[in-house]
Each structure stands twice: as C-alpha cells, then as structure tokens.
Amino acid sequence: MAKEIAVFGATGNQGGSVIEALLKDSNYKVRAVTRNTSSPRAQQLAAQNIQVVQADYSDKNSLKRALQGVYGCFVVTTQDFTDNDCQKTETTHGKNIADVCSQLNIEHVIFTTQLNVYKVLGINARHMTAKAEIEMYMRSLGIPATYVVLPCYYESLLTIFRPENVNNNEYRLLIPMGHIPLDLISIKDCGEVIRKIFDNRKQYLHKTLSLSGDKLTIKHMAATLSKHLHPKQFSDKQVTTTEYRNFGWPGCQDLANMFEFFQRVDQRTNIALTKELNPRLKTFEEWVVANKAALTKL
Prior knowledge:
Elements: E1 3-7, H1 13-23, E2 28-34, H2 40-47, E3 51-54, H3 60-67, E4 72-75, H4 86-103, E5 108-113, H5 117-121, H6 126-141, E6 145-149, E7 152-153, E8 164-167, E9 170-173, E10 182-185, H7 187-199, H8 201-204, E11 208-210, E12 214-216, H9 218-228, E13 233-236, H10 241-245, H11 252-264, H12 271-277, H13 284-290, H14 292-295
Parallel strand pairs: 1-2, 1-4, 2-3, 4-5, 5-6, 6-11, 7-10, 9-13
Antiparallel strand pairs: 8-9, 10-12
Helix pairs in contact: 1-7, 3-4, 4-6, 9-13
C-alpha cells in the first residue's frame, strides 16, 4: 500500500519539486497542503488527481484535519519580510505543525531547516533563525524527523538575485560573497533528494543533511553565464554586505547577514551525499545550459 505524504508549500517551488518526485514513485501518494485551494497552482494539482487540502498554519485544528492519516510530512515554512513580526510568525507556524505531527504520531517528518545565524554571530537573518528554532522545538518533542539544510537556489538568478543590467549586454551580479565560494543547488533537484530520504527512513532519522549541488565563487558564476549566454557578458560587482544592507527593500538586511554568515562560517555541505541521493544532480553550468531560454530573457 502506498505511503501518503503530506507536502507543505505544495504550490511553491520546494513543495512542487517534492510532489513531482513523489508522483513518479508508486510507493507514495501525495496530499498537497496549501493555504489557498483556489489558487491556480492548487487547481493544477487537483487536475492531476492529487488531493489538495487547505490548512491554516495558525490553527492547529485545521492542521489536524489536513494531516489526519498520513504516513509522513515534508514541511517547509516561509517568511514574509514585509511583516515586522515575520520571524515570530514563521516560528509559530512551524511549532504548530510540529505539535500536530507529534499528536498524530506522524512516522517521518522531513523539515527544511537552517543554521542559527543569531546564535553563532549575534546578527540576525530572520528566515534562518526561525527555521533553526523550529528544528530545536521539533527535536525537543522527539518527532521522528530528518532535517535538510538547503543552500541558495540557481533559480534565484531569475528572481531575487537577478543580475543588474548596466549597459546593453553587460550585466553584474550583486551577491555579496567576495572571493568566498557560495553553495548552490537547483530547486528542481531537491525533490528527488527528499524522496530518497523517505525511502531510507532508518538511515537518515534524526540526522541533519547539509546539501549542495555546486560550490563556486560569484566570479566563476559570472564567467559561466558569459560563456553560455553570449553576447551577454556578466561580472561580479563585488558588492559588500554593508552595501547590500542598504538596498532598501524588505529582507535586504536579513540576506546581507545571511551572506556574512556564509563568508565567516564554514558551510559544511556535502555535494557527494547530495549526488548520492540524486544522481541527476546538476552543476551550476549544467543548469545554465538547461535554462538558457529563461536566462537569455534577463
């Protein structure tokens, strides 16, 4: 009998990648959990004969109804930087989910966590600190869980880390890492990793896995983009974390502190393990080649 997995963030990128991987495996059945079952993406999932359930992360009774009877959960929590209490909101949501998973005796939870930037450096990246606090709470409850630390996504070059166009075909990357290599991964490669962890519950239970698809400097990233997106040319602007903090949009200070953390604290990611969990894991260059159509629209 197929094991039913509740996937939080089902209409987002992380959840969508996990759903795609699980649907390819007859050993699993997907229950898509979302705040809004009427959204276009939720309707698309329903059209694929996937059970789509609504859950209010602030309401434990709502969460109980959404998770009743499932074998496992993939849990991702998100943060809205326009909310001044975003860290508290995300932490509360995560703890509510943890409480319900504990009460319902969910057999395997996979949670996408992060390291506690504030605890290590005394500076805050609210999206990371919240996830670290949720992980600590889950562990205190004894939840049978695996914790996955994901790096920045290649796909973020199309959104939040979109290169700055300075002159015709000249672009600059505004990622404040200096000469320190940055861990990255394709969000679409994460789903297969999660499926494999569900496959091997006993091996990965109560462990934290720090994943990565590639590790390279911003200068190397720029060279790779220039190589494959000619005549567009890319360079590293060498923006500092101080400059990044002053960009003025919601969350820029959190991301600047995140990058400072990446620079100052060794990120002990495991590309070999990630490749073992997903043999089709793409390097940054392979991802660029596969996504030239989208990247040429920058």
